[in-house]
Each structure stands twice: as structure tokens, then as C-alpha cells.
Amino acid sequence: MKTGDKAAETAFVRKLYEHPLSGREIEVKSLETIDREAGDHGFGEKEWQVVRRMIHTSADFSLMKDVHFLNGALDAGPAALSAGRTIYVDSNMMRAGISLARLREVREQYGPADVVCHVADPDVAAAADEARLPRAVFAVRKAIPVLDGAIVCFGNSPVGLLEVNRLIMEEGIRPALVIAMPVGFVHVEESKEELMGLHMPAIVLGGRRGGSALAVSVIHALCNIVKESAL
What we know:
There is one protein chain. Helices cover 55% and strands 9% of the residues. By secondary structure, the chain is an alpha/beta fold. The chain contains 13 helices and six strands. It has a six-stranded mixed β-sheet, with helices on both faces.
């Protein structure tokens, strides 16, 4: 940029000031762009609502090849939200990211206590230190009383997902839906692959990718599916 070049020095945001777009209009335009650039993606209507929201969150079209919908996930997840089931998450970042307003559009009775995360609880931290295991294991165990019929959502800890898998296999725990999108390099792919063999309703992002934002985007997409089905 040359000093004194007025055109170059004009802040880009002034283009928005001149041609305003609201946040909602930007979102709609973004989703239209995703639809156009994705082309013939091969997903069903409800599946695409979820995948498109994930792409909107990440700007990553390549994840389309790694998203798996298993065992009636897109019936089970919306049904659980409509019934006001507990949502268990593996990080407080996810707990903060899930929009209570969106949940209440689905079921008015949803409140902060219905989104559960124990990973930062002092007793969980103490148990993890004593056992030399990640806190996610003990956070899951503490949540056992609410896991049956819940939406269980992982965006961070593959070890936490492995513990849920064990509870399904050994103790008969039956979540309504497992959203499996932990990210990382150790035990990540194994945790997802094991879940996919358990015949549970699940939405899984295969491979190493994942994260809080992607997992939260799935919850929000499921809320939209419920809302549209009620129209």
C-alpha cells in the first residue's frame, strides 16, 4: 500500500457499509455458495443439512467424504431434541457454543442444566490425576445417570468416546445419538471406528479431523431439521 493512496487506504468494511448485509443475509448467501460449489454431493436432504452446516463452520468441502450417518441417526437425533433429552458434551467450549435459543426453538423447556459437561469438575480432575488417565474418562463416568436416551457429543476427546463405547459394549448404556467428532492423533481413528461397529445411531466424522465447532454445528443442524419438520 502506498502512503497517500486513498483507494488503497479505504477499509474494506466500507464496501459493506455501502451495500449492507445483515448477519442472517450473510448466512443465507454463504449457504447458497456451499450448495452451488458442492454440486451433486449425493447426500439425502436431512444429511445435507448437517453436512452443509459443518462446511459452513469449517469452509472445508473435503470433509464430505468422511461424514457417516449410521443406524437411523437423523431420526433418533431430532426425536431426542423434540423430547428435551439431555445433551452430554466433552468440553465446556462446546457447552458454551450450543445455542440455548436454538434448543428452545425446538423445545421451550431446555435450560442450561440440560447441556452437561463434567470435564472441569474438581472430583473428576482428582480421579484423573490418581489414575493417570484423561479427565474425559471420569467425566463420562460421572454422567452415566443421564446418558441413556441422551445425545452424546464429542468434539475433543477420543478417550472419552472410547469410554462411551465401553459403556455401550459392557454396561448396556444406550444414548439416543452419538455425535463422534473428536480431533487429534492418538486413539482418534480407533475411537470412531469402534463406535461405527456398535450399531448405535451415530453421526461420525471419520479420520483425525473434528473439533468443538464441528460437533456444535451438528447439534444446530439437528435443531433446524426439527423446526422444518414442524412446518
